[in-house]
Design a protein that fits this description.
Elements lengths: L1 H8 L11 E5 L5 H13 L15 E5 L10 H4 L1 E5 L6 E5 H7 L1 H12 L6 H6 L1 E3 L13 E3 L24 H10 L4
Parallel strand pairs: 1-2, 1-6, 2-5
Antiparallel strand pairs: 3-4
Helix pairs in contact: 2-5, 4-5
Length: about 180
């Protein structure tokens, strides 16, 4: 059953028998940090034989793209824009709306922006396969290697302790910030 799916899965990849497929789990990973690591793998910068004019990178299979994370308030503030080509056709969608519609587009656009802007970009992007869930078509592939991503480092916010007699300059902002940090 899996052998019948593999030719479709590797379509568009040159020398597919020689390419190593790296499996990345995007569960809980930050979009930009994951995209920069994927871009390095697609370009071949992780290999000792790297040459900027040769497309010698590995293929990347990303699973659980629907569980990607953004830092800060980017889920509500980040906007994806495009134009339809008609007058007044500027469309926009927030990152939260895009994640609901198709979470793979968010990671694909982030990786695409980190690849070199030349003729090799499209062949590199053909080697990127993104799946929103844990299932993928490369289960029985002989060159599939699990790529361990570094764990996400969360900053430990220290609790702010005010001295006796402390009066904030702007009490509304001060109390709102304490509420966001989980204090009071």
């Amino acid at each position: 059953k899996m052998a019948s799916k593999l030719p479709h899965a590797v379509r568009g990849i040159e020398n597919a028998s020689n390419v190593v497929f790296r499996l990345c789990d995007a569960d809980g990973q930050v979009v930009g940090r994951l995209a920069s690591q994927i871009a390095r793998i697609l370009q071949g910068k992780t290999k000792p034989t790297y040459q900027p004019n040769v497309d010698d990178g590995d293929a990347v299979v990303v699973v659980n793209a629907s569980k990607l994370a953004f830092t800060g308030r980017k889920m509500e503030d980040k906007v994806y824009r495009w134009h339809t080509g008609y007058p007044g056709g500027l469309k926009e969608r927030t990152a939260a709306e895009q994640m609901r519609r198709d979470s793979t587009v968010v990671l694909r656009k982030a990786v695409s922006g980190m690849l070199p802007k030349n003729k090799q970009r499209q062949s590199m992007l053909r080697k990127l396969r993104i799946y929103s869930g844990p299932e993928h078509e490369f289960e029985g592939h002989p060159n599939l290697v699990v790529h361990e991503l570094p764990p996400r480092k969360l900053r430990n916010k220290q609790a702010f302790v005010a001295e006796d007699g402390f009066e904030p300059f702007n009490p509304d902002v001060y109390h709102a910030r304490l509420a966001r940090m989980g204090q009071k």
